[in-house]
Amino acid sequence: MEMAGNKATTEQRTEYFDVLIVGAGISGIDAAYHLKKECPEKSFALLENQESFGGTWLTHKYPGIRSDSDLFTFGYKWKPWHGDPIARADLILEYLNECLEENDLARHIQYSRKVQSASWSDQDRRWTLTVLNNATGELTEYQCNFLWMCQGYYRHSEGYTPDFPGRDNFKGQVIHPQTWPEDLDYTDKKVVVIGSGATAATVIPAMTDKAAHVTMLQRSPTFFFPAPNRNELADTLRELDVPADWVHEITRRKVLHDQKILTKRSFEEPEKLRAELIAGARQYLGNDFDIEKHFTPSYRPWQQRLAFVPNGDLFTAIREGKASVRTDHIEEFTEKGIQLKSGEELEADIIITATGFNMNVLGDIEFTINGKPLEFSECWAHRGIMFSGIPNLAWVFGYLRTSWTMRANLVSDFVCRLLKHMEETGTDMVTPELREEDKDMPSLEFVDAENFNAGYLRRNIHLMPRQGDRKPWVFSQDYYTEKDEIAEADLEDGTLIYK
Ligand SMILES: Cc1cc2nc3c(=O)[nH]c(=O)nc-3n(C[C@H](O)[C@H](O)[C@H](O)COP(=O)(O)OP(=O)(O)OC[C@H]3O[C@@H](n4cnc5c(N)ncnc54)[C@H](O)[C@@H]3O)c2cc1C
Fold it and tell me: 32 in ligand 1 pocket by Cβ < 6 Å?
């Protein structure tokens, strides 16, 4: 809890660490693991705003909350996953807890610490952070040489809800999945879920056990990928008593291989893939269901995240009549529910706005560089990890298509290699800068819309740094090229300036 009304006081004490990691979610824990292993002489701490670890998997408490990536790749390379591929949040948190315990990382995390500002000084060659202790309301100063931003890419305090006309007319409850009231009783209630992304696909079948009926209301259809929640290869290897770390690594490689083919097909033969995905839905819903209207998206498969539906549970709920779909536009909220543009009024006791999240940049932290406020959108992204003009800082922005963690892992290796390189060369400051020959680069969006065009990115892309048209200023969002490019990155290519 933040002490909103209390006047904060600044403690005199300043804590110094070689590296500070902001956030104790999947990325922060990966960063800490690598740092401890690769750079054991560096002192470090993780500053986490929440009262526990896990980030996304702690914040979200809606019914059924689960990953939509398989845990062989969403889990870490260094810690085998023993369960089914798609996992509920509580199992992900259990896995992360084991990661902390087994590697003695828990003692490095400081909870209820909200980083409010960060300023770099060339003169001091360090970052100074102002950090709010949520429990006491005190502000403390922390300093570090290197700042590792593992704060994710969205605001945890509240989700994104569009401004629906007539919102106040509605007499029932309106709930965003990101701020789910844990005591919400939806027994025998008519529920309308607005949206058709992974969250809607999760929450709908999870609510049909108690709700009178759940309606998914979507403006436009999404691609879903129904399949059993098991990995045959992992099951076979386990049956053969293959050691757990082998099962993990082999299955991981197979998943990545299969996803590579899927991604390639989404560019090379999108129509064929589209037909297969639609046939997948048809298998569950039968010939009489209007798949054309409700499950045939206009975008290319994989241009937005492909929502995995374990065991086809969403489709089963629809087939059994416990859930239904409307593809329509909202005219306004009414006293009793939602008036649709087609003329129908959808009655509801509870409306769930599964309408996504608010992207934020650099954790809503106020940044200054040598006293000047940082304009992040004017920076050039260096391999999508560091940023021109910002010394000693890396941000983990994971993959949007492949599991996020795959990129967190590449970034961890890169940062540790960079820190070791600086140690070896006797420098303590590194800043990405454009070379003379880079200065004519076209300024392109951080994530190319043709590649990936999810709504939250399109709404906020103007806040993000830019990418160029040549290495290392390109951010391809492609694991299969980055896994070699980042691993082999030349740290003396003239774009990283050491002092
Ligand atoms: C519901 C949902 C499901 C998802 N499912 C998947 C999936 O299946 N596969 C996938 O690849 N991706 C998924 N994602 C994307 C997901 O965010 C990432 O995969 C991953 O969990 C991000 O980990 P992270 O540690 O980088 O960030 P987060 O999980 O966002 O954690 C960041 C942490 O930083 C802390 N923090 C932020 N700002 C500050 C600050 N100023 N001071 C101190 N602490 C701060 C936050 O409190 C938080 O604990 C999902 C996202 C959502 C919202």
Answer: no
